[in-house]
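Run log, item B.
One chain of 307 residues. Sequence copied directly from the ordering sheet:
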Amino acid sequence: MVKTGHLGLDARKSLPDEIERRAYRPPAPYKLDVEIIRMSDLRARVTNDHLRSVHRIEFYMLICVTHGECAHTIDFQQILCKQGSFLVLRPSHAEQFDLEHDWDGWLLLFRPEFLFPLQSTQKSDKLDLVSILLSLPDHLALQELEYRMVTDAMSQMFDDSTNQASPTERTALIRYQLCALLLRIDIMHRQQLVQKHASLMEVQRFNRFQQCVEQHFAKWHQVREYASTIGCSEKSLTRATREVAGITAKTFIAARINLEAKRLLVHTALPVAMIADRLGFDEATNFIKFFKLEAGCTPAEFRRRHR
């Protein structure tokens, strides 16, 4: 593994059939499982080639753009960002930084287990922060007050991460501030959805559906399987998905399957037949038809275009 400085983005040398994975592993003497850093400082620490290359992360990363504009790529989609843009990246996301534009912002990186000590043993008041992270969209456009809240929180966490307290004390300070930040953003996001005429019950149902799809998309391709697990009718699940995401539950499932197919086609050398098998298709021909319906081209054509 190759250390890339204080940020600790280890580039794991991948096999031909694997996307390059990068883990959060900061070198000594930095001992925290979380880091807050400015994009301008990150660019001074690592090479442009390291940032520019497409990679799959194994940690969570929150990005808040504070100056300039950029086009950050997450899973083949360019997200146009400006001041107030807030990005949520999760383990397994394939991303690429924009180095062509002059921009800056806060980056907050942390291992998945960083949040675990906050999980309450009391079922009634459990803080399911992982579910919150999974339910948030990849991109939020913050209003002025929300932007100030986020940037103030990240600035304070940065100060606390570099003070003279012990690693245990610094970790506790940042962990609870991160908890508060995620809860505030989640509340803000749910309020926005309700204002767009989606009821709170539909938002909660869609969130459960989204988490379930993330766990089972490679095996479950039918809406009825998810509706049965969640405990609602297919009609109710489709209505909730349409209200929150703007698409049907069937389309949402298909999009997640195709996203994983695109990742494997572009970032691995796996044969199409093996990708089809990984994604739960009995026959490669069925997978090819399924993929072409959404992507507008065959898997082989998609691979050629993006390599």
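Observations after the first pass:
- Residues 200-305 form a domain with the Arc Repressor Mutant, subunit A fold (CATH 1.10.10.60).
- The chain has twelve helices and eleven strands.
Flagged for discussion on Thursday.
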